[in-house]
């Protein structure tokens, strides 16, 4: 299993037939013959797992197996206990209800978090918060839609864990091989 820290603005695929100038996974020296286990939007960062084992990729990607996915989410606004409880209880989105999640507000920005390029816009009159959010689904832009539904629009989204695999210590664009 390859554990990769996907930078902001990189597609979770090796080629881009729509806009060939966009950066893809092909530019990071990854081993040949591997494929992503799931996706991470181009405007999201962090952990992406890749493998040459099709059955393992299917297991990680399939909603049937409900692998937990943990994100560090910078949101606009204050993450109050009430808003965190709404996230934890599950929400009704336009494509149906979400499963209950785990959510907690972080009091300080983790010291391992790298600066984003381009930087997040800062507004002096609107505070922001950092939430650690764990879901067991992986619908299209689900975390962004969940935080927006409770009035906390996502400013930055960094996936830090999928099941037992963690981003630990990888800078954007770096990868390591782990025993599956």
Rounded average pLDDT? 92
Indicate how many domains the architecture comprises. 2
Strand content: 25-35%
Individual helix count: 3
Q: Compute the gyration radius: what is it?
A: 16 Å
Q: SSE order in H/E notation?
A: EEEHEHEEEEHEEE
Shape: globular
- Reported CATH architecture of the largest domain: 2-Layer Sandwich
- How many strands in all? 11
What helical percentage do the residues reach?
Answer: 10-25%
CATH topology label of the largest domain: Alpha-Beta Plaits
Q: Cα distance, first to last residue? A: 6 Å
Q: Which regions are unreliable across 5 or more consecutive residues at pLDDT < 50?
A: none
Output the structural class: alpha+beta
Fourth-tier CATH superfamily name of the largest domain: Alpha-L RNA-binding motif
Could you give a short account of the major beta sheet?
9 strands, mixed
Provide the CATH top-level class of the largest domain.
Alpha Beta
Give an overview in words.
This protein has 180 residues and is α+β, with helices and mostly antiparallel strands. Helix content is 14%, strand content 29%. It folds into 2 domains: 1-66 and 163-180, Pseudouridine synthase I, catalytic domain, N-terminal subdomain (Alpha-Beta Plaits); 68-162, Alpha-Beta Plaits (2-Layer Sandwich), CATH 3.30.70. It has helices spanning 54-61, 81-89, 142-149, and strands at 2-6, 35-36, 45-51, 69-76, 92-93, 96-97, 102-106, 128-135, 154-162, 165-166, 175-177. Strands 1, 2, 3, 4, 7, 8, 9, 10 and 11 form a 9-stranded mixed sheet that branches. Strands 5-6 form a two-stranded antiparallel sheet. Strand 5 and strand 6 form a beta hairpin. The mean pLDDT is 92.
């Amino acid at each position: 299993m390859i554990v990769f820290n996907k930078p902001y603005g990189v597609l979770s695929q090796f080629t881009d037939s729509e806009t060939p100038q966009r950066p893809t996974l092909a530019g990071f020296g990854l081993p040949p013959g591997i494929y992503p286990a799931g996706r991470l939007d181009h405007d999201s960062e962090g952990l992406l797992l890749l493998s040459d084992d099709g059955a393992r990729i299917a297991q990680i990607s399939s909603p049937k197996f409900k692998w937990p996915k943990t994100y560090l989410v910078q949101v606009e606004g204050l993450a109050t206990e009430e808003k965190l409880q709404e996230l934890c209880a599950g929400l009704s989105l336009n494509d149906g209800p979400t499963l209950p999640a785990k959510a907690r507000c972080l009091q300080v920005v983790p010291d391992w978090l790298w600066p984003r390029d381009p930087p997040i816009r800062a507004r002096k009159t609107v505070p922001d918060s950092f939430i650690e959010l764990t879901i067991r689904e992986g619908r299209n832009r689900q975390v962004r839609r969940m935080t927006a539904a409770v009035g906390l629009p996502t400013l930055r989204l960094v996936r830090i864990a999928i099941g037992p695999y963690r981003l630990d210590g990888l800078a954007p664009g770096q990868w390591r091989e782990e025993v599956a």
